[in-house]
Specification:
This protein folds into two domains: about 270 residues, 3-Layer(aba) Sandwich (Aldehyde Dehydrogenase, Chain A, domain 1), CATH 3.40.605.10; about 180 residues, Aldehyde Dehydrogenase, Chain A, domain 2. Helix content is about 40%, strand content about 20%. It is built from 16 helices and 25 strands. Strand 15 and strand 16 form a beta hairpin. The structure holds 2-aminohexanedioic acid.
Length: about 500
């Protein structure tokens, strides 16, 4: 077992990086909210919480920006996003370092997160010339029917600590090309990366020349700030990523005022290891999906169903990977598993492991790794004979529940038998099994993969899931439609007025 120990000051490093990224020190020094690094446990900064009046002012400014921005041709709006992508490319190492310091991701994953931002910017630039509607056959002579997509307004973005910057970009890169303005409430655990991203956006605006003031802003704070965003009548869409509990609070409030909700909530993602699986590939796929990001992705692999014929060949190898995976300072070369976000994350993990033991689970790993004030843990693998309650709930930590199965229908039924529906995968070389898994009677998740794990999706596909995952779709495919309003237009170029459905109304 290798434990990487390299505790150097996160606070000094953060100050350095924030300076290079052009974040005004007044924004991160002297406020009332301490920002702790999960890497060392140190307080790195003190940010200011936005008051209700400040949130309202940001929304009013964004609304004003929207009124101007909606008139700018979409490809020109794309130019701003192109410039943002360039700023992100130039700042990739620094922003990645800040993601590591603030969210605890290992360097390659932190850089990967910034790469996702760059990718979605590129995607959105192309999209800015492809915001199209359909022309539809009409039943009336000399008429034309079509649909037009218009900018929607101010988009509220609520994001979680685990993808502190990428989630904003999936939403806002699309929203900006769609002609919208954004107000962003980052997780209160990760405000510094948000301030840095906003600074990069402002650099892009300066190069762009005439972007309206207030097009993007960051409002920091807890629940009250989120509520001010969710309840404001000038916010027609809130895209919220986080826990199911958060979604349950946000969804009904938005429904109350008929605003749109784009929810990306909890996952309880599974993989099936079938008899014909390539076990070498499956080991790597499972290891990354279950232990990567210290188990703190929405798409993290949490449940594994292993066919009884390969169980004894597969599970001991997996356990060996668990026993040797390098846990430690995410800045150190070679570390694969960094810290949990905070003590609460660690306590939830320990509580789940206690529940799993009480339910008859055999636990390997899961113990705390001593790294001073920060919370590091060995990833845990739990062999268990059924889907006990603890298996059905999402614990945002590196815990993998491993179960045996006999027939695939049973495994698919078990995989679907949880409240969440985000991501899923099967490892098989049997074409019938693969097709069944992704068919209508296969996985009920928003993401269903074959021979790759459930995490680490590309931005080109629509990202999100069903059931308690909230139903929203972000990033690629036609997700952009959530950020626009659709108008159906019927044009009469004749000189009579035939009514639809043959209705007569002659006056
Ligand atoms: C999340 O954890 O909130 O598919 C999103 C993935 C990433 C996104 C995860 N592209 O793992």
């Amino acid at each position: 077992m290798t434990v990487q120990a390299k505790i150097t000051s996160a606070a000094a490093e953060a100050a350095d990086v924030l300076g290079r990224l052009g974040v005004d020190e007044a924004l991160w020094n002297g406020g009332g909210r301490p920002v702790r690094s999960p890497v060392t446990g140190e307080v790195m900064a003190h940010v200011h919480d936005a008051s209700k009046a400040e949130v309202d002012a940001a929304i009013e400014a964004a609304h004003g920006a929207f009124l101007a921005w909606r008139n700018v041709p979409a490809p020109r709006r794309g130019e701003l996003v192109r410039l943002l992508g360039e700023e992100l490319r130039a700042a990739k190492a620094d922003l990645g370092a800040l993601v590591t310091l603030e969210a605890g991701k290992v360097t390659s994953e932190a850089l990967g997160e910034v790469q996702e931002m760059i990718d979605i910017c590129d995607y959105a630039v192309g999209l800015s010339r492809q915001l199209f509607g359909l022309t539809i056959a009409t039943e009336r002579p000399d008429h034309r029917m079509m649909e037009t997509w218009h900018p929607l307004g101010v988009v509220g973005v609520i994001s979680a600590f685990n993808f502190p910057v990428a989630v904003w970009s999936w939403n806002s890169a699309l929203a900006f090309v769609c002609g919208d303005a954004c107000v962003w409430k980052p997780s209160e655990k990760t405000p510094l990366t948000a301030l840095a991203t906003q600074a990069l956006f402002e650099r892009a605006c300066a190069k762009f020349g005439d972007a309206p003031a207030g097009l993007s802003s960051v409002v920091i704070g807890g629940r009250e700030v989120g509520e001010a965003l969710v309840d404001h009548p000038k916010v027609p869409l809130v895209s919220a990523t986080g826990s199911t509990a958060m979604g349950r609070a946000v969804g009904p409030r938005l429904a109350q005022r008929f605003a749109r909700a784009l929810l990306e909530l909890g996952g309880n993602n599974a993989a099936i290891i079938a008899p014909t699986a390539d076990l070498d590939l499956a080991i790597r796929g499972v290891a990354f999906a279950a232990m990567g990001t210290a188990g703190q992705r929405c798409t993290t692999l949490r449940r594994l169903f292993v066919h009884e014929s390969v169980y004894d060949a597969f599970v001991p190898r997996l356990k060996a990977a668990y026993a040797t995976v390098p846990v430690g300072d995410p800045r150190a070369a070679g570390t694969l598993v960094g810290p949990l976000i905070d003590q609460q994350g660690f306590d939830l993990m320990q509580a789940a492991l206690a529940d799993a033991k009480a339910a008859g689970g055999a636990v390997t790993g899961g113990e705390r790794v001593d790294m001073g004030e920060a919370f590091y843990a060995r990833p845990a693998l739990v062999e268990i004979d059924r889907q006990a309650d603890v298996v059905k709930r999402e614990t945002f930590a590196p815990i993998l529940y491993v179960m045996r199965y006999r027939d695939l229908d049973q495994a698919i039924a078990l995989q679907n038998d949880v409240p969440q529906g985000l991501s899923s995968s099967i490892f098989t070389n049997d074409m019938r099994e693969a097709e069944l898994f992704i068919s209508a009677r296969g996985s009920d998740c928003g993401i269903a993969n074959v021979n790759i794990g459930p995490s680490g999706a590309e931005i080109g596909g629509a990202f999100g899931g069903e059931k308690e995952t909230g139903g929203g779709r972000e990033a690629g495919s036609d997700s952009w439609k959530a950020y626009m309003r659709r108008a159906t237009n019927t044009m009469n170029y004749g000189s009579t007025l035939p009514l639809a459905q043959g209705v007569k109304f002659d006056v």
